[in-house]
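Priority: medium. Attachment 1 of 2:
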């Protein structure tokens, strides 16, 4: 299992382990191969050991997933979800914020000082201003995500960092209107890679909103 995987690769090098929680975007739908998903590009470029916890059709801040992350060894954690909270199993902005708050509480119980990079949802053109069954657009959910991290939690958690997701991918890089293509994953990796690498190497230092 994941817990037992070795963390050293080749010639004694030890890679920092990143747990990457997310939905089908993190998993790599619409990428040409699994290795082309942004977590794995970042891992190759910056010497991280990425454990991809991307769940297609899910990743709604499930407490069970938070408990799993809390129990696993990690040097770095990224949390990137929200798109699936707009549709299928819709959430209001208030419910989404409360769920994210609870998710981080559980993760922090197992990783009190591990750097967490929270990435708000990337663009989804059909959802940005369209309300779901509970009256929330994806723009509303993104705002709730960013407010939860930056306003409600950041002051009390120096190891928590926000990366706004709206501009990470261009609409033209979403072949199905939801998931990035290879160019989109590269674009995400180009922004997220330096942030994750810096936090992996400086887990005991405070940083700004978007390193």
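Attachment 2 of 2:
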């Amino acid at each position: 299992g994941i817990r037992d995987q070795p963390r050293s690769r080749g010639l004694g090098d030890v890679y920092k382990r990143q747990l990457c929680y997310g939905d089908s975007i993190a998993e790599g739908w619409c990428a040409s191969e699994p290795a082309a998903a942004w977590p794995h590009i970042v891992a190759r470029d910056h010497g991280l050991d990425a454990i991809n916890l991307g769940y297609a059709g899910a990743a709604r801040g499930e407490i069970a997933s938070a408990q799993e992350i809390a129990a696993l060894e990690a040097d770095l954690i990224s949390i990137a979800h929200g798109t699936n909270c707009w549709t299928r199993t819709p959430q209001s902005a208030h419910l989404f914020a409360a769920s994210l708050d609870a998710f981080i509480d559980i993760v922090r119980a197992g990783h009190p000082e591990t750097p967490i990079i929270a990435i708000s949802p990337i663009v989804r053109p059909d959802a940005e201003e369209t309300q779901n069954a509970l009256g929330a657009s994806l723009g509303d959910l993104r705002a709730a995500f960013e407010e939860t991290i930056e306003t409600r939690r950041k002051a009390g958690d120096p190891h928590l960092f926000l990366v706004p997701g709206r501009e990470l991918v261009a609409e033209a890089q979403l072949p199905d209107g939801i998931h990035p293509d290879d160019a989109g994953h590269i674009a995400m990796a180009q922004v997220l890679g330096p942030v994750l690498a810096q936090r992996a190497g400086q887990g005991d230092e405070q940083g700004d909103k978007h390193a």
